[in-house]
Design brief:
Beta-Lactamase; Heat Shock Protein 90; 3 domains; five-stranded antiparallel sheet; 20 strands
């Protein structure tokens, strides 16, 4: 008796709930997978973005302050020559008008009286007690933000904009004999720093509560927003090493991602106490993951509930024991009839004579014929004329004596509705024997919408590929225009500065003080560095020789240019003899060059290799590029997706896809990595729609 009760409990409760339990377990696994993979990846990317935003703002501020300091140094050198007050004032005014960040530029005598200034403001007034004069006498000095106390009324009276806050840069100036004669100072509008902050943050709609703050040495926020964290956490962040993102809990225990970078003007003696802090609530960064989990739980929970109810009802019904065989068979037949009648898929059976013996309500809805009309009718009326041959083949196989029961075919077929409309159907065909009579039974599902969606998806992929090609082409054109602008405008301006500086140096006495000569050499070095940086930018934006001489010459120049910085790594170009003078389409050469440049940079920076070899081989209709290094190699995960926080491999694949090429990244057994790109010219031809894979009710063609 106990065994009977246990069996009844298993049949009546455990088995009906088993499908729901399995579905629930799968749902839990999906949620955990989303939490551990998607969430970790999004968190890593959010941390990278927070760190990158802080670095971008700090670097921009550093470059801006270095430029302002260099301009002030150049303006202060004019005090050594007999330039005249009016000319000096004109030069100051021109410098002020050249940048909206300048509010005032002026020079004083040794007692702090303003001798000359932009807009003639404060001329004759004394600023001997101001920090800008007191600190500026000792060397190049930078003062943090403060209100415009002295200039406020003068700016308003003269109809000039009145800034809310100013930053100061000051330095001592000397006469022709090298003796101190006062200071030169400039006031910078804090609004220019705010504009650079907004630029670093990017579009408002894409910030996702990303915050950026400019902070002084005491931790006071000068510009921007203070993260919603405690003062203790705030000061711990400022005391921690810079240039690293970290996770901090706010006062309510919610995690924040924060990163800090210091503002250090490069190639300048100017020193600041400023720091840049970027922050973002982790909950905001993970909002897409939460939305995905909610959707998975909603849809998965609904599916689990429906599956549990359906499994429970059907299992309870089918698992009830019967003592009478006839009753068992009769009720099973009723259940089967009800299932077929209520099924959402069309069920059709035909005999050896080809006439329909079963046509359920779903079939009537799909084909537009009533079951009463179709019983006894040939199946031909449901098939297009072009699909009848395969159907006749199945009927002949059904009539053979050796025909056996079981599934015999499945795939996509085409059906014909009563109104003449063709349907895409997913079919599964089985051969059964009922009371000694063999029949073909087909279960059909209308997948016309899915087939159309698949065709639309294929079209979308083609359009996305075309869009990628256009974007890469636009990138090439933009780089070309930017390179032209740098060459024709900034390059020419730096050349003019070089000539003016040389002319100015020729006018100066030969017996200058050692400190003056040092400043002269420093300024000359700054101008030379600027020229070098412009040339480097031109090389990066517009690969030399690529358009004029081709891929081989451009790669040779690239390896030669990188050779010095890459030491002790040896760089070598290997061009097949048959490919020396070959040219390929411009977009193919450009994409191949950019892939080679990225692969070469990765190998030099990360691989710790002794040698990197770039190999080029090809013919007019194909190109093979291979970059091989003998370094440490990449892990399987890095081979598939690249290094964490880097998009090099992803970018190279996009460039290859844009020209219809194949890119492979492989590790070598003894260490090292091979990145290869293979392109072959293709002829695009129109083709008929290949969406249908079947020819009739039977196996896919």
């Amino acid at each position: 008796m106990p065994s009977t009760h246990s069996r009844d409990r298993v049949l009546n409760w455990v088995l009906p709930l088993l499908p729901a339990a399995i579905a629930f377990l799968l749902l839990c696994l999906v949620v955990v997978a989303v939490e551990r993979t998607v969430a970790d990846e999004i968190k890593r990317r959010a941390s990278f973005r927070v760190e990158l935003t802080a670095q971008l703002y700090a670097d921009q501020l550093s470059r801006t302050l270095a430029h302002r300091a260099a301009e002030l140094v150049l303006m202060g050198e004019m005090s050594r020559s007999e330039i005249g007050v009016n000319n000096w004032r004109a030069q100051m005014q021109r410098l002020k008008d050249s940048s909206p960040s300048y509010v005032w530029i002026g020079a004083t005598d040794a007692e702090g009286a303003v001798e000359v200034a932009s807009d003639a403001l404060l001329e004759g007034a004394s600023i001997a007690t101001r920090n800008v004069f007191v600190n500026g006498r000792d060397g190049l000095w930078f003062g943090s933000l403060h209100p415009p106390v002295v200039l406020q009324e003068l700016l308003r009276v003269n109809g000039l904009p009145v800034p809310a806050e100013l930053a100061d840069i000051a330095m001592p100036i000397y006469d022709a004999a090298g003796q101190p004669r006062g200071i030169i100072a400039s006031h910078l509008d804090a609004q220019s720093f705010e504009e650079e902050r907004q630029l670093a943050l990017g579009p408002l709609a894409a910030r996702w509560q990303l915050r950026l703050a400019l902070v002084d040495a005491e931790g006071r926020v000068l510009i921007g927003d203070h993260p919603a964290i405690s003062e203790q956490a705030w000061h711990e962040l400022l005391a921690a090493p810079a240039e690293q993102s970290r996770e901090v809990l706010d006062e309510r225990g919610a995690p924040y991602l924060l990163s800090r970078h210091t503002v250090r003007p490069l190639d300048s003696q100017l020193q600041t106490s400023w720091q840049v802090v970027s922050s973002q609530p982790l909950s905001t960064a993970l909002a897409p993951v939460d939305e995905l989990k909610h959707r998975v739980l909603a849809w998965g929970g609904g599916a689990t509930l429906l599956l549990g109810l359906a499994g429970f009802a059907l299992s309870r019904h089918l698992s009830r024991p019967y003592s009478e065989t006839e009753r068992h068979l009769r009720e099973q037949g009723e259940v089967l009839s009800a299932v077929i009648g209520s099924a959402s898929d069309a069920v059709i059976s035909v005999g050896v004579d080809g006439r329909i013996s079963l046509f359920n309500p779903a079939a009537a809805r799909v084909f537009g014929h009533s079951a009463e009309q179709m019983i006894g009718q040939p199946l031909d009326v449901l098939l297009p004329r072009s699909h009848l041959a395969l159907y006749q083949l199945y009927l002949r196989g059904l009539a053979k004596p050796q025909a056996t029961s079981g599934p015999i075919g499945m795939g996509l077929v085409t059906g014909l509705r009563a109104d003449g409309q063709e349907l895409d159907l997913e079919v599964s065909i089985s051969q059964i024997t009922v009371s000694g009579n063999r029949q073909l039974t087909a279960i059909l599902r209308d997948v016309s919408e899915r087939v159309r969606a698949e065709r639309a998806l294929t079209q979308s992929r083609l359009e996305l590929s075309e869009l990628t090609q256009r974007l890469l082409q636009q990138e090439k054109q933009t780089a070309r225009k930017l390179a032209q602008t740098l060459h024709d405008q900034l390059g020419q301006t730096l050349g003019a500065i070089r000539l003016s500086f040389d002319a100015l140096c020729a006018m100066l006495p030969t017996d200058l003080a050692a400190k003056t000569l040092e400043r002269e050499r420093t300024l000359a070095q700054l101008i030379e560095t600027a020229n070098h940086e412009v040339r480097q930018a031109l090389v990066s934006l517009r690969p030399p020789f690529l358009d004029e001489s081709g891929l081989q010459a451009a790669l040779a120049y690239e390896l030669q240019a990188r050779a010095a910085d890459a030491e002790p790594v040896a760089l070598r170009l290997d061009v097949a003899p048959s490919s020396f003078d070959l040219r390929w389409p411009a977009d193919v050469e450009y994409a191949a060059f950019m892939v080679a440049r990225e692969a070469l940079a990765n190998a030099v920076l990360h691989a710790r290799a002794d040698e990197v070899v770039v190999h080029v081989d090809g013919a007019p209709a194909w190109l093979h590029l291979r970059v091989t290094d003998d370094g440490a190699g990449l892990s399987d995960e890095q081979l598939a997706a690249g290094r964490p926080g880097h998009l090099g491999i992803v970018g190279m694949r996009e460039r290859a896809n844009a020209i219809g090429a194949r890119m492979d990244v492989k590790g070598l057994p003894g260490g090292g990595t091979v990145i290869s790109l293979t392109w072959e010219a293709q002829t695009v031809q129109g083709s008929a729609d290949q969406g249908r894979q079947g020819g009739g009710l039977g196996y896919p063609a």
